[in-house]
């Protein structure tokens, strides 16, 4: 909001003022005076113009009633101009009122900055309330106030307030359970089916909040965005996200595949619309499809239920594992012993509790000490929250142990009863308690 300085313009003889001070040759003087007013500086002392024209010198002489000092620059004392305007009756209130009459209300920059700061504080109020109501989002809301994302997405405080109101409303509804179509959810919560389309400010902000809400790892690309939405129960594509399984039961198709001992792929659509009616007591979880293929070859229908992440856990994989955990299943996890594998396991642990399946420091040391020609460990180290000793052991040995290197041990654990697997499976299933990152 503009803040006018000086008395009302009606006190000014505007015609005479324009002839005296409002000429193009004195525009520099008016501009410098207005700049001082904006900065709330006193209208005293001199202002100067380098290399003035003869017309500018004559205009200053006419204004002051005397020739200004000579030289390469033109210098005019603001006190003298103020006195002329008051004494002549052109602007009885002085120079500030005259400049306001000529150029319009002057915005004091200090006050403008204070007003803008107050407006932005009010814009962030929905974030403050969201962090207070949902403590798990508090760190994200605090970070969002500081990292500038909202200011990049919204052009001004009013637009930011509207954006943050909408984002808070969306995040309060998440995660959606059961999962729903993203456009349908957007239409219900925001009034527009396209409000959460790719590239919209609301979609960008909401995806940032979803990562904080669900622990979904950072990433980019269409597939990553699809899985990030799905981690909060919002489905953009129900068919592309899949999970590989072996010997799970509960539907005619799964029962048939389990009867044949053949791997089966489940889509997110199947899992969201028709969750499995049963949950086995124990399900083993691996990272690489090679383990599933080898288990199917070695044990067929006798292999205990197995789920494979195939790298980063997909929305379908997380949906399935959450359903199993909620049904009372104990999840036993094994992955690659490298920094990428540790990160995958930690990301899954933030979303679903599991117990390590030959995936602790002692297991790594045992395999690394017996396997041959292991590749070197590369990349940035990562912590293993389920076993603080694992990362130091890996760093010390400096070798990468992929799941295939431990395949014999894993297949032994998966062997059917009566074929040497009972004792091993009891170790894998009962040797460690379930852990979460909060512990």
Automatic annotation (TrEMBL):
Residue ranges annotated for the DUF2399 domain, each copy included: 264-414
Pfam families named in the record: DUF2399, DUF3323
InterPro entries tied to this protein: CHP02679, CHP02679_N, DUF2399
Region spans: Disordered: 413-439
Limits of the Conserved hypothetical protein CHP02679 N terminus domain: 43-249
Listed transmembrane segments: none
UniProt cross-references to NCBIfam families, sorted A to Z: TIGR02679 family protein (TIGR02679)
Protein name: TIGR02679 family protein
């Amino acid at each position: 909001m503009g803040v006018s300085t000086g008395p009302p313009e009606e006190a000014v003889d505007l015609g005479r003022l324009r002839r005296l001070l409002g000429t193009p040759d004195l525009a520099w003087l008016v501009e410098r005076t207005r700049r001082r007013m904006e900065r709330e500086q006193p209208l005293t002392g001199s202002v100067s113009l380098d290399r003035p024209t003869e017309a500018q010198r004559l205009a200053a002489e006419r204004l002051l009633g005397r020739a200004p000092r000579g030289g390469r620059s033109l210098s005019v004392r603001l006190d003298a101009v103020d006195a002329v305007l008051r004494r002549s009756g052109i602007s009885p209130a002085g120079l500030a009122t005259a400049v306001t009459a000529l150029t319009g209300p002057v915005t004091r920059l200090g006050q403008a900055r204070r007003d803008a700061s107050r407006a932005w504080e009010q814009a962030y109020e929905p974030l403050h309330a969201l962090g207070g109501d949902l403590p798990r989002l508090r760190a994200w809301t605090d970070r969002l106030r500081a990292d500038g994302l909202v200011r990049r997405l919204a052009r001004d405080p009013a637009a930011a307030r509207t954006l943050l109101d909408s984002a808070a409303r969306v995040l309060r509804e998440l995660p959606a359970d059961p999962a729903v179509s993203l456009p349908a959810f957007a239409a219900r919560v925001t009034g527009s089916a396209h409000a959460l389309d790719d590239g919209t400010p609301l979609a960008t902000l909401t995806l940032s909040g979803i990562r904080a809400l669900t622990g979904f790892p950072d990433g980019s690309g269409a597939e990553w965005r699809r899985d990030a939405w799905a981690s909060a129960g919002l489905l953009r594509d129900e068919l592309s996200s899949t999970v590989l399984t072996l010997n799970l039961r509960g539907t005619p198709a799964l029962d048939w595949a389990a009867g044949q001992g053949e791997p089966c792929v489940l889509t997110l659509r199947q899992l969201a619309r028709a969750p499995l009616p049963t949950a086995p007591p124990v399900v083993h979880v691996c990272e690489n499809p090679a383990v599933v293929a080898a288990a199917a070859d070695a044990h067929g229908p006798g292999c205990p239920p197995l789920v494979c992440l195939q790298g980063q856990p997909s929305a379908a994989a997380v949906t399935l594992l959450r359903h199993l955990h909620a049904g009372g299943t104990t999840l036993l996890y094994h992955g690659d012993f490298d920094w990428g594998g540790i990160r995958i396991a930690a990301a899954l642990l933030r979303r679903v509790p599991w117990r390590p399946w030959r995936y602790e420091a002692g297991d790594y040391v045992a395999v690394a000490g017996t396997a041959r020609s292991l590749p070197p460990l590369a990349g940035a180290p990562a912590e293993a929250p389920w076993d603080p000793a694992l990362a130091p052991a890996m760093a010390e040995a400096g070798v990468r142990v992929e799941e295939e290197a431990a395949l014999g041990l894993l297949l032994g654990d998966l062997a059917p009863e009566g074929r040497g697997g009972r004792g091993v499976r009891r170790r894998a299933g009962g040797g460690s308690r379930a852990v979460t990152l909060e512990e």
